[in-house]
Amino acid sequence: MESLKNQILEEGVVLSDQVLKLDSILNHQVDPVLISSLGKEFAKRFEGESITKVLTLESSGISIAYATAYEMGVPMVFARRKKSITTDEDAYCERVPSFTKGIVTDIVVSKSFLSADDRILIIDDIIANGDAVRGLMQIIQRSGAKLSGLGIVVEKSFQAGARTIREAGVRVESLAKISSLANGKIEFEA
Ligand code: 5GP
């Protein structure tokens, strides 16, 4: 998506050769026009997959997952992050490291929102090592639902997350692939 890449170039702030700050469009303030166009693009790419639910992780995935689910006409579920988890038999829980915060959090989805009949599309804002998405994939697997694919706004392709998930046979659609953040410069894959 050229418009997305242009907005990333205009508004992205390279914090290090590993981290890109996108607070003004995705992670703190959201641009509704952009988010709605991302939802339309994901809905188009996964058309025909008979998706029944869109799953994401709070908080930055929510607006994009909502826009996608709205276009698809299906519900959106977001996993909640909990600092400590008391065992809850009514919920699926996975422990995931947080790339940006450097801590481990538990992510939780109520069992009542996922069933074996569901075909799930995972949506997230940015993929780095893939831990957040792998946590969601584990939850889907435990629920018996089918994972139809992943829609990611920004793939940092110099980090291993998306590649290893594709190698495991999962369809991953990324709208912008960043090949490098070295020397303060955002480079996209050709
Ligand atoms: P992963 O679990 O794939 O290592 O990291 C993914 C999560 O960390 C995403 O939910 C995303 O919000 C956050 N994240 C990873 N890399 C970046 C980055 O470069 N910039 C920002 N703003 N968030 C990131």
UniProtKB/TrEMBL annotation:
<comment type="pathway">
    <text>Purine metabolism; XMP biosynthesis via salvage pathway; XMP from xanthine: step 1/1.</text>
</comment>
<feature type="binding site">
    <location>
        <position position="20"/>
    </location>
    <ligand>
        <name>xanthine</name>
    </ligand>
</feature>
<feature type="binding site">
    <location>
        <begin position="128"/>
        <end position="132"/>
    </location>
    <ligand>
        <name>5-phospho-alpha-D-ribose 1-diphosphate</name>
    </ligand>
</feature>
<comment type="subunit">
    <text>Homodimer.</text>
</comment>
<dbReference type="InterPro" id="IPR050118">
    <property type="entry name" value="Pur/Pyrimidine_PRTase"/>
</dbReference>
<comment type="function">
    <text>Converts the preformed base xanthine, a product of nucleic acid breakdown, to xanthosine 5'-monophosphate (XMP), so it can be reused for RNA or DNA synthesis.</text>
</comment>
<keyword id="KW-0328">Glycosyltransferase</keyword>
<dbReference type="GO" id="GO:0000310">
    <property type="term" value="F:xanthine phosphoribosyltransferase activity"/>
</dbReference>
<dbReference type="InterPro" id="IPR000836">
    <property type="entry name" value="PRTase_dom"/>
</dbReference>
<protein>
    <recommendedName>
        <fullName>Xanthine phosphoribosyltransferase</fullName>
        <ecNumber>2.4.2.22</ecNumber>
    </recommendedName>
</protein>
<comment type="similarity">
    <text>Belongs to the purine/pyrimidine phosphoribosyltransferase family. Xpt subfamily.</text>
</comment>
<feature type="binding site">
    <location>
        <position position="156"/>
    </location>
    <ligand>
        <name>xanthine</name>
    </ligand>
</feature>
<dbReference type="InterPro" id="IPR010079">
    <property type="entry name" value="Xanthine_PRibTrfase"/>
</dbReference>
<keyword id="KW-0963">Cytoplasm</keyword>
<feature type="domain" description="Phosphoribosyltransferase">
    <location>
        <begin position="47"/>
        <end position="156"/>
    </location>
</feature>
<keyword id="KW-0808">Transferase</keyword>
<dbReference type="Pfam" id="PF00156">
    <property type="entry name" value="Pribosyltran"/>
</dbReference>
<keyword id="KW-0660">Purine salvage</keyword>
<feature type="binding site">
    <location>
        <position position="27"/>
    </location>
    <ligand>
        <name>xanthine</name>
    </ligand>
</feature>
<dbReference type="InterPro" id="IPR029057">
    <property type="entry name" value="PRTase-like"/>
</dbReference>
